[in-house]
Specification:
Elements: H1 6-33, E1 39-43, E2 47-50, E3 56-64, E4 70-78, E5 83-88, E6 96-99, E7 104-113, E8 120-130, E9 136-145, E10 158-161, E11 166-169, E12 175-183, E13 189-196, E14 202-207, E15 216-219, E16 224-232, E17 240-250, E18 254-264, E19 270-273, E20 280-284, E21 289-297, E22 303-311, E23 317-321, E24 324-328, E25 333-341, E26 349-358, E27 363-373, H2 376-402
Parallel strand pairs: 2-9, 11-18, 20-27
Antiparallel strand pairs: 1-3, 3-7, 4-6, 4-8, 5-7, 8-9, 10-12, 12-16, 13-15, 13-17, 14-16, 17-18, 19-21, 21-25, 22-24, 22-26, 23-25, 26-27
Amino acid sequence: MKKYQPAQIALTVCLTLLAAAITTGRASAAEATRPLRSIVMAAEFPGVVVGQGETVSMDLIFHNKGRTDENVSVALSEVPEGWNAKVKTYRFRVTGLHVPAEKSKTLTFEARPDEGTAPGEYRFKVDSRTADGAFKMDQTILVTVTGDRPETDESAGVSVATSYPVVRGPSDGTFEFSLDVTSDLDDDAVFDLFAQGPDGWEINFKPAYESKYITGLRLKGKQNQSIAVEVKPAINSPAGEFPILVRVSSGEAAKSEVKLTVILIGTYALEAGTTSGLLSLEARQGKPANVSFYVRNSGTAVSQDIQFLSFKPENWKVEFKPEKIDAVAPGEFEQVEMTITPYEEALVGDYSIGVQVGSDKVKKELEFRTTVKASPVWGWVGIGIIVLVVLGLFAMFRFLGRR
């Protein structure tokens, strides 16, 4: 294989450093355009309509658009009579949070009505400010309570809430939901945990921040505790939406249900190779040689925009037909023709051709061994030389024999 010259290596290094400098300059320019400080707060749903007795839960989103980290205090400055409201994480009440520069963070606003709260409009107000008071923000949340009861099963003695009832990810992933379980009973009670999901799925309950699995939960009267629901889809589950029902109950005294949803986007996997399993071929200097290979989608999601990239010796040519594949459905495959043309002055021997097949989701690499052989013309030339030598020797022996 032909080696790179020092001048070519130096040129490549210079071009790489120049590209890095340009990229860094652009990043620095973009950084300079951002304000030094800028932070905003917004409620996920500033206005909601709920049934009588229904708990309200939503995200409070903090966007730090500046270049400076911010510490923000949070408080409820207005809570209607007959409601218990708080700002919290999945576990704690919160009075402040840290928001890194150019990042976003969320807290949960939760409002639970007292029993017998009448229908009507109820206004909540959330105030926040930075540590130095440079930024003061407020958000009004309007809750309209109708006379209708929620269509979901009423909590009796226990309530279950989650801030993120829908999660999304690949089919071979593991998903986790965080649930807040609150006992409305006056006495201690043991609550059974039950989950129902698609066939073949594995669903387990865990205490928050622990890895052990549980099937029950003991709560004191009026106690709240967070638990996690771990969900593992069945192998080769297709893409789509899958409901999961979680029920918390303590005999006939208390029961509550919550509906969760897992959205699977499928798995991305590619296979590539030749039907014979051989990744080698022969070629001659300056002459094209063809080899075909297949690309198969072994995942459960459609693979799109599959492209080909070759790693070849200098002055060699590698072409693909088709040049790219728009999409391959799960279980389907496409045939690709690859043409390799060695350099006209390539030395006789073995060379390696690397091929990368893939998209932005998944990649597969192949390595073809290409053996460059001498042109057959040189074979005939060699035979001709041998014949001439033999004839010359024969003539010399005859000449010497006569003498």
